[in-house]
Design brief:
A six-stranded mixed β-sheet has the order 2-1-3-4-5-6, covered by helices on one side. The protein has two domains: 1-33, no CATH class; 35-207, Carbonic anhydrase (Beta-carbonic Anhydrase, Chain A), CATH 3.40.1050.10. The chain has 210 residues and is an alpha/beta fold. The chain has nine helices and six strands, in the order ααβαβαβαααααβββ.
Length: 210
């Protein structure tokens, strides 16, 4: 018997018997209305990240897409799932905000710093090209400010790069020009729960005060 599958089944049973009954009205309302998320949350596929938990949001509030390294290919370079999600979220659902959320101890950032680690993963290696410019910037800044961790610098520069990539998408550019969409960059610290944000066009990440 598959032990992992049995563990997942047990989790579903706990949801059905303990979680769902307490929130049944909320789920019923969500099922009876079209989804109207206010935010598109682009984050990493890392299993330690839970977008709804971090933002204290429930069903229907946040449209989420996840991939290795929370990356957004510039429009036209790698048209696919991420581009389709962005287009649908902005053009179809009318989200008002897009957040790109990186995080501490990111495997994608580690792979950028140590490309040999993904030598036998050609698809991953190709995907990481979406962050090569961030690596160049981080290494340059690190030479000037060596006291700062290169990993931390790279994580922030990657988020900023993906925000720039976002603006190349026609749906995003149009919505921003109309004043209907804003963007922000986040870095989530897994160990402490702290979140740093760069918003309103700023390139500086500031800690969100509790």
């Amino acid at each position: 018997m598959d032990e992992v599958l049995e563990q997942l089944k047990a989790g579903v049973r706990r949801f059905q018997t303990q979680v769902y009954p307490q929130r049944a009205e909320m789920y019923a309302q969500a099922a009876s209305e079209p989804q109207r998320p206010h935010t598109l949350f682009i984050t990493c596929a890392d299993s330690r990240i839970d977008p709804n938990e971090i933002t204290s949001t429930g069903p229907g509030e946040v449209f989420v897409t996840r991939n290795i390294g929370n990356m957004v290919p510039a429009y036209g370079e790698m048209l696919g799932g991420v581009s389709a999600v962005i287009e649908f979220a902005v053009g179809g659902l009318g989200v008002k905000h897009i957040a790109v959320c990186g995080h501490s101890d990111c495997g994608a950032m580690k792979a950028l710093l140590n490309p040999e680690s993904v030598a036998k993963m050609p698809t991953v290696k190709s995907w990481l090209k979406n962050a090569h410019a961030a690596l160049s910037v981080a290494e340059t800044l690190h030479e000037r400010l060596p006291d700062r961790e290169l990993m931390e610098e790279l994580t922030e520069q990657n988020v900023l790069l993906q925000l720039r990539h976002l603006k190349t998408h026609p749906s995003v550019a149009a919505a921003m020009a109309a004043g209907e969409l804003t963007l922000s960059g986040w870095v989530y610290e897994i160990g402490s729960g702290a979140v740093r944000m760069a918003a309103d066009g700023s390139h500086v990440f500031k800690a969100l005060e509790k």
